Amino acid sequence: MQEPDSSGGGGIMGNLTLNGSSSGQITLSPPAVAGTNTITLPAVTGTVLTTAGGQTISGTTTVSTLNATTIQVGGNQAVNGPAFYATASTSQSITNSSFVKLAFDTKQFDTNTNYNTSTYRFTPTVAGYYTVTAQWFASVNAGRIVCSIYKNGSNYIQGTGIGTTSNGGSAQIATGLVYFNGSSDYIEAYAYQEGSGATTINNSSQLSYFQGVMVRGA
């Protein structure tokens, strides 16, 4: 092992080599950069770090438990991004020949508290790309029936269908991939039908719902 330097700093110049109890050596090499860096070891017994296989952790990272054979997480990963699923507590009347916002006022889940049950709006606070889906079901005798997803107040994704008989039912769905900036971008679900009068949407959670999940970071 090298002796401390003579500069008065009490440190060790160059590499530090530790000899094994029977054979082998471990060499600690400081980076060739100016400044002082500190490594703090935990006050526990055990293996602190192994680089077998070549792990890299960078950026601002908090790791509480890490025990796996292979871990590969690069940039632009959703990992644990926002997801929501909303339904309606009551049936809703939809007037004919106009787009009406769907009142999905009940959250089945909302992992990041980004869905508002008063405005029926999803505003994720994590930028990225999301798969979103809206569906409504009703007995409609109409020439044109539409489910749409509005982004920032404008029709963005539109799914359409044909009219059904007065005794039948029709589930209209709109789904697609939407980019959110993580601050101001939001989506809402809308319904449109061209019947002779208003129609009532079934509020069954299996038939009428609004959902979304982050699939990739920005």
Indicate the CATH topology of the domain at 83-217. Jelly Rolls
Number of helices: 0
- Fraction of helical residues: under 10%
Give the topology string: H per helix, E per strand: EEEEEEEEEEEEEEE
> What Rg is obtained from the alpha carbons, in whole angstroms?
29 Å
Residue fraction in strands: 35-45%
Q: What structural class results from the helix and strand content?
A: mainly beta
Mean pLDDT: 83
Uncertain segments are: none
CATH level-two architecture of the domain at 83-217: Sandwich
**Largest sheet: number of strands, sense, barrel closure:** 7 strands, antiparallel
The CATH class label of the domain at 83-217 is Mainly Beta
Count of β-strands: 15
Tell me, briefly, the overall form.
rod-shaped
Please give a structural write-up:
It is a single chain. Helix content is 0%, strand content 39%. The chain is mainly β and 218 residues long. It has a domain of 135 residues: Jelly Rolls, CATH 2.60.120.40. The protein is rod-shaped, with a radius of gyration of 29 Å.
